[in-house]
Amino acid sequence: MLGICRGRRKFLAASLTVLCIPAITWLYLFAGSLEDGKPVSLSPLESQPHSPRYAAASQRERESLEVRVREVEEENRALRRQLSLAQGRSPAHRHGNHSKTYSMEEGTGDSENLRAGIVAGNSSECGQQPVVEKCETIHVAIVCAGYNASRDVVTLVKSVLFHRRNPLHFHLIADSIAEQILATLFQTWMVPAVRVDFYNADELKSEVSWIPNKHYSGIYGLMKLVLTKTLPANLERVIVLDTDITFATDIAELWAVFHKFKGQQVLGLVENQSDWYLGNLWKNHRPWPALGRGYNTGVILLLLDKLRKMKWEQMWRLTAERELMGMLSTSLADQDIFNAVIKQNPFLVYQLPCFWNVQLSDHTRSEQCYRDVSDLKVIHWNSPKKLRVKNKHVEFFRNLYLTFLEYDGNLLRRELFGCPSEADVNSENLQKQLSELDEDDLCYEFRRERFTVHRTHLYFLHYEYEPASDNTDVTLVAQLSMDRLQMLEAICKHWEGPISLALYLSDAEAQQFLRYAQGSEVLMSRHNVAYHIVYKEGQFYPVNLLRNVAMKHVGTPYMFLSDIDFLPMYGLYEYLRKSVIQLDLANTKKAMIVPAFETLRYRLSFPKSKAELLSMLDMGTLFTFRYHVWTKGHAPTNFAKWRTATTPYRVEWEADFEPYVVVRRDCPEYDRRFVGFGWNKVAHIMELDAQEYEFIVLPNAYMIHMPHAPSFDITKFRSNKQYRICLKTLKEEFQQDMSRRYGFAALKYLTAENNS
Questions:
Q1: Residue-range definition of the domain harbouring residue 304
Q2: Residues of the signal sequence (predicted)?
């Protein structure tokens, strides 16, 4: 009788849920689009109905609403199916609880049902379902090494963050390259309720280097075997993921499966969906021993505390040593050894439903893991072909992956309501600085930009360069946005030395850049070009932040501070290295000036010598840079003297001077208060002068500015009076700061400004 009552109560509750959810949902969605009864506006530009920012924001809101509505509709359909099942049951069958929610997802050890397709959760008595507490931290371990894997990790993390409702703690076993990239990325991402710890993968190499491995993952593909030793001793459980994983659901569902482990089960794995471990794929194919089809280790649930008690370290080592006597090497890295251990100890494994690891390599049974899109949980691109793999539904999977690949990571900085985040000093300092700004100040947006933390992905592409041993090496430093991408190949042809570039891109543009670079023979042949992505945020182009990012990651003793629109003369790299020695830059404060010229022609026969350049100047093909609109910027270079100069000569600083210079790597940074157009280089040259740098013009060096359409920021400067007023205000504040820092010596800057 009690069972019947319980069943009726659940049926009534589910019925009310189906009726109420649509109304509540639409009320929530409507309320969520308002703040204090008014539409949320992020900036003045976004509030203009006809502005591109407003249109983009509206489009994003519409897409967000559509996604939410689809989610609710899916939940409604699931509840209706549940109701129809409940209505069809006799009272005698209503005592069990068969419902599943995101926090009650259960696996099964029934391999027969698994092979048949999607498996429902095991029945359990009322009050015994596994749950994930609202603010319970979920631990995720990932092995990551190198530049490409670091990019893959970002997409994986985005998919996890998109669905998550719990705090996350990522444990990243990374080499020095991946750690530098990902530490900077997470530090600048500033996602609430996310903690990241790094473990030095290079120190773990000795633990697994004795195992020959043919898999493309190399030695890092074996490091999941040593997680019980590597991860903190007080960490009891962890989800281990490959970098080529995409989540299509909340990871809390997978975390809840730990509660289903029984007895000595310590490993949660999905059956391998290819025939690899069955053997006979080709003549003399001899896989490692496995239980049936074996298990795939792209997604693993590890009960670390029990594994340690079982002496896992000793267990896998003995198994590997024994099998290597006959197999000689692993073909699938750690997966072979995990399967050999399970073959001997089948009680260790808890078999997960295969939708927790839908394996998209060629010739797999992955299509049996789902009947509908809503069945998908985790997609695993475990083929070397990755997105080019053959599968009946690969187009859908590819689009899902690309969605996260190009998804704006800034949108994932959302708070987990009701879950307190750990105190973060950087975040607290940032909030304090922002709170001190006056939001009624007409220049508030300019001032705020100075404190904006832009998500930054260093070394987006492979970088490999060892500076010259003679300590004369020079790196060209520049910054750019998507509209200047076409300049990259030309600069690489003119400058053979190392280059450090900061690119200001959206997530989608970063992927466009990646495809562009990978399709360019010129760019792919150069491994000494460092591409650092600074992701878009705010309404201004953070030009000086970009320069600082590019400067900070220069690996040579000297830097040539250029702009992306300039082509250096052929041979400038070697000429600058000789000039470094000639002018003793290592022991003196000097800034070597490279004279700047420009052409108004899109097609230019680039001068191969100074004599040829002078001839083109005389013919009117070339001009001194900005002579017709901003003479003061380069007039102190003294082009008349340069025409006949054969030795370097010194020039004095003058107001608004902004030459392109070669300096030591330890020179001061650019001032971040200057964004968009105006005074960004002028302020830096003024700072160099205040620090008593000598300005030396090189007699046989030159660079030429190539024509391009006006930037968005210069258009705003010319058309917006308030923009010019704010720039003037920032200049005055900068000069006051200079006076405070450099005292009496800085008075000349105020005088020069008043006289100019």
A1: 138-412
A2: none
